[in-house]
Amino acid sequence: MTYCVGLLVKEGLVMMADTRTNAGIDNISTYRKLRVFGEDGKRIISIASAGSLSTTQALVNRLHEGVKMPGNDEPEFLETAPTMFRVAQIVGEAMVGAKKDIEAVVQQQEGVEIGVTLLVGGSIDGRAPRLFLIYGEGNFIECGLDTPYFQVGELKYGKPVLDRMLDYRTPLRKAIKIALVSMNSTMRSNLGVGLPIDMLVVRPGHSTAAVTRIEENDPYYHDLGASWAAALKDALNNIPDPAYPLPGEDSGPVAAKS
Amino acid sequence: MTYCVGLLVKEGLVMMADTRTNAGIDNISTYRKLRVFGEDGKRIISIASAGSLSTTQALVNRLHEGVKMPGNDEPEFLETAPTMFRVAQIVGEAMVGAKKDIEAVVQQQEGVEIGVTLLVGGSIDGRAPRLFLIYGEGNFIECGLDTPYFQVGELKYGKPVLDRMLDYRTPLRKAIKIALVSMNSTMRSNLGVGLPIDMLVVRPGHSTAAVTRIEENDPYYHDLGASWAAALKDALNNIPDPAYPLPGEDSGPVAAKS
């Protein structure tokens, strides 16, 4: 499994991906799922992938070799695309081609999963960062203000904290913290999602990204997991126990503290 | 969608199910998914179901008419089964039959989901309650001490709180509170799971259950949702912001509070 999340707040873009790859639970390895393109000091583009590793690699290969777009005889590259929207179109087109490549090989054999979903984010010429979710069919949607995040992969365990905590005005460092809690909740419930975490941060007005790999021994991440677990326990204990009737009791104590 | 959860702690059994049924998001109604059998003052058996409503109703009909078990010419009933284990076997056999009934009708038409998963819990003659999860194929597993809960349906959103908070020694009222937080997290993230919640509580030594329907205007449930949301916000704010480098900064403030 994989879990990737992208947060787009007023102060910037945060993209995170775990690095665990598994073909069955007895074949686990570490693989980078957050790729960076076009770091020329003027643009920064990142792609995070969930799904088939072979389809992803076929797609990345197409991006490196250039993608033939409808109506243009010359191949196009992420390194020279004029806008993030064009970047998303190029990646979508590469997705369609990569899927065809792989389908030609596997020929609809049962149980072969070749689907991929991507997050594509970044900024060109220091403009406000943008974030897209590319579906397995090559079409895509852009992240907006109302729900300022996208997830791909094993998304449900880490979604409640995003829904409850995040909005477009959330400060950047707090957004990073929320994304890490979301990662932590996912890793606790699904062994297929694991450390290290790759993180990329882009800010408006800056044409280089901060890329960080959060390893097993990262003190902040370790403390975050422990503090969050302890805080949840306290939060639960501070809510009164319910007084619904139990068998053999007419009614329970009202608002008894546990 | 549906979310049902069963908790088996030392002080008793808690079963909960939401009541929202939908055939598409534009066809939503309220349907009881937690059924009670054999309330004769000596036994209490409850079944919570997730999946196809037509398969579930075919299965319940079989339970009412009696289930032919291998090696017995007489039909068997939940109302007279000697043990909870036999109850689980009878329900499993009814599952196999119900699935065949429905398959004969729908004939593998694409897109017709006929699968059902069940929680079966209860107590006979005041003995310690037991809890089973019945798979769609009719086989089943029993809940044990190490992970004292089962879920069926839309389970991922509400699983982290169970994994973090619940163990076999958790007091009964606190277990109810944890199950309600799990329900609340699920309802917040999936509109297909909705109020009212049906709850059943069984205690060792008591042969009647407490059955409660928690409606939209239930003051405890309303406060629980609000308190939990506020406590999570506080918990997050009390964790220092991360000091990972940001673009344009060599390093961030160390342990800055948000």
Q: Give the neighbour order of strands across the main sheet of chain A.
A: 12-1-2-13-14
Question: Which structural class should the secondary elements of chain A be placed in?
Answer: alpha+beta
Helical fraction of chain A = 25-40%
* Average pLDDT score of chain A: 91
H and E order of chain A: EEEEEEHEEHEEEEHHEEH
**Secondary structure tally: strands of chain A:** 14
Low-confidence stretches of chain A: 252-258
Measured by DSSP, the beta-strand proportion of chain A falls in: 25-35%
Rg of chain A, please? 21 Å
Number of individual domains of chain A: 2
Q: Oligomer, anyone?
A: homodimer
Structure write-up:
Two copies of one chain form a homodimer. In chain A, helix 1 (53-65) packs across helix 2. Chain A has helices at 53-65, 84-106, 159-165, 172-189, 219-238, and strands at residues 3-9, 12-17, 20-22, 28-30, 34-37, 43-51, 67-68, 75-76, 116-124, 130-134, 140-142, 149-153, 197-202, 210-214. The first copy, chain A, is of the alpha+beta class and 258 residues long. Chain A contains five helices and 14 strands. The model of chain A is unreliable at 252-258 (pLDDT under 50). Chain A folds into two domains: 3-216, 4-Layer Sandwich (Glutamine Phosphoribosylpyrophosphate, subunit 1, domain 1); 217-258, no CATH class. In chain A, the strands form four sheets. The first copy, chain A, has a five-stranded antiparallel β-sheet, with helices on one face. A five-stranded antiparallel β-sheet of chain A has the order 5-6-9-10-11. Chain A has a two-stranded antiparallel sheet with strand order 3-4. Chains A and B meet through helix 3, helix 4, strand 13, strand 14 and helix 5 of A and helix 3, helix 4, strand 13, strand 14 and helix 5 of B. Chains A, B: It comes from Sandaracinobacter neustonicus. Chains A, B: This is Peptidase. Chains A, B: Pfam families: Proteasome.
